Amino acid sequence: MMKKILVVAESIDVEDSSGTKGRVALIKNLYKAGFELQVYHYTRKIIELENIPCHAIKENRRSLLFFLSRLERYLRYWFNLKVYKQIEQAFGFSFTLFNDRNSIVRALNKITDFDPDMVLTLSKGGSYRPHHALLKLPGWHSRWIAYIHDPYPFACYPRPYDWVEPGYLKKRKFFLKLGEKASHIAYPSKLLAELMESYYAPMRGKRLIIPHQTFESDTTAINLPAYFKNNAFSLVHAGTLLGPRNPRSLIKAFQKFIKENPEAADHSQLIFIGRKSKYSKEFKEVMKVFPQFYSTEAYIPFSKVLAIQNNAAVNIILEAKSSISPFLPGKFSHCIQAGKPILLLGPYYSESKRLLGNDYPWWSEIDDEDKIFAMIEELYSNWKSNNSQCDYHSLGKYLSEIYLSDQISNL
Fold first, then answer.
1. 245-261 burial code (b ≥16 CB/10 A, e <16)
2. Half-sphere exposure of residue 24, counting CA atoms within 13 Å on the CB side?
3. What residues are paired with 55 via a beta bridge?
4. Which domain of life is it from (predicted)?
5. CA angle 405, 410, 411 (to 5 degrees)
6. CA geometry: angle at 11 spanning 156 and 316, to 5°?
7. Are 181 and 225 in contact (CB under 8 A)?
8. Which residues in 42-53 are b (16+ Cβ under 10 Å) and which e?
9. What confidence tens digit (pLDDT) does each residue in 329-348 have?
10. Contact call for residues 282 and 310 (beta carbons, < 8 A)
């Protein structure tokens, strides 16, 4: 008999963040693997997942915490009084988070028709609201799988992302308690698990690796945007460029490729898909003088982004210049599913590189312009000879409901 899993998710709206896309793919693959699910989510709007019972948790708008959270917001917007740092320094978290936690706890306490074998908490960003809520429900601690998608708090991030935020010690205390109370700690990445266990001793011995999932997605009927040349040598980076993800060497290498291979100019392009970033101004200048380059800033539906990735000649994963990248990017599974070469630009010690293998041919540090140029030339040569497909069979299995089912069923 398959296990019953209660999923408590911060959001199941795939359009709100890359993190939510990964969480929804995980939920869908749990269902596909045969588990009986109930999903309670704090998206605060009605969203349905096919064949999966979903319950939207309502925000408690009558509490003192709600009033205090709105007062803080109004002081910030109306009078430019930024008191949130003092609030977090004193309490560790915002009044909004405390009210959201209590709203989730109240909803979960009302469940009477579903007795789960496991409770899986899924979050996004740095809030971990469902995890805060489960700490208030000790009756479920022995069945609790706490999914940790990123290092926490920010002081635990590797450079250059690390910084000490207000209320750091209370945030750390929260994760120490989480590590103590949860039955299992799930991570999308082995390197992330090792990093978190180095900071939090209570998490050791509770490790469960659940990578970002592949999923069925038919994008053949989706119209591709006018700026995307189908059947061209298209290099695509999908996702917002956080500051340390510096694309300058990649752009220079591609410009050099076009200059030294002029026959490729008419059917080659480098595309960045994502919201506005610190590089947007530079991108606009490059677009004026280099027609093979294009960058978006407007919102693009997830399904259309997937269609572009599936039709690209090469998909790009760009990570920060660092000694290590313990993150498994959410788009890693999309790139694997597309079956095209991945141009991986990041540290030597990287979860993406670990999964692709030490002998993976298209990896470089992000600032090695000469190596990136040489790899683009090789990828172009392969594309011209119709030799661009990649065999990701073993990785596809690792990122699918097959491996997921094994991990959960063996608990």
1. bbbebbbebbbbbbeee
2. 21
3. 40
4. Bacteria
5. 110
6. 60
7. no
8. bbeeeeebeebe
9. 999 999 999 999 999 999 99
10. no
CA distance 352 to 130: 27
Query: According to the 3-state scheme, what is the secondary structure of the chain?
Result: CCCEEEEEECCCCCCCCHHHHHHHHHHHHHHHCCCEEEEEECCCCCCCECCECEEECCCCCCCHHHHHHHHHHHHHHHHCCCCHHHHHHHHCCCHHHHHHHHHHHHHHHCCCCCCCCEEEEECCCCCCHHHHHHHCCHHHHHHEEEECCCCCCHHHCCCCCCCCCCCHHHHHHHHHHHHHHCCEEEECCHHHHHHHHHHCHHHCCCEEECCCCCCCCCCCCCCCCCCCCCCCEEEEEECCCCCCCCCHHHHHHHHHHHHHCHHHHHHEEEEEECCCCCCHHHHHHHHHHCCCEEECCCCCCHHHHHHHHHHCCEEEEECCCCCEECCCCCCHHHHHHHCCCEEEECCCEEHHHHHHCCCCCCEECCCCHHHHHHHHHHHHHHHHCCCCCCCCHHHHHHCCHHHHHHHHHCC
CA dist 245 and 222 (Å) reads 29
**Is the dihedral angle over the CA atoms 379, 384, 385, 387 positive or is it negative?**
positive
User: In whole angstroms, what is the distance from residue 93 CA to residue 85 CA?
Assistant: 9
Crossing angle of the two packed helices 95-109 and 64-79, in degrees rounded to 10: 150
Residue 215 is predicted with a pLDDT of 83
Q: What is the pLDDT of residues 102-146, one digit of tens each?
A: 999 999 999 999 999 999 999 998 889 999 999 999 999 999 999
Question: What Å distances lie between residue 255 and 142, 251, 373, CA to CA?
Answer: 56, 6, 9
Domains and CATH numbers, the chain: 4-210 (3.40.50.2000), 233-395 (3.40.50.2000)
Tokens of 123: 């979050």
Q: Is 26 exposed, middle or buried (0-12, 13-18, 19+ CB in 10 A)?
A: buried
Taken as a whole, the chain contains a residue count of 411
Token digits of residue 238: 């999908």
The residue written with tokens 């694309």 in the block is 247
Q: Residue 292 CB: number of other CB atoms within 10 A? A: 23
Give dist(CA 104, CA 128) in Å, integer.
Answer: 12
pTM of the model: 0.93
CB 301 within 8 A of CB 15: yes
Q: Are the beta carbons of 408 and 400 closer than 8 angstroms?
A: no
Q: Please give the C-alpha separations between residue 174 and each of 26, 129, 202, in angstroms, as whole numbers.
A: 25, 11, 12
Q: How far is 59 from 102, CA to CA, in rounded Å? A: 9
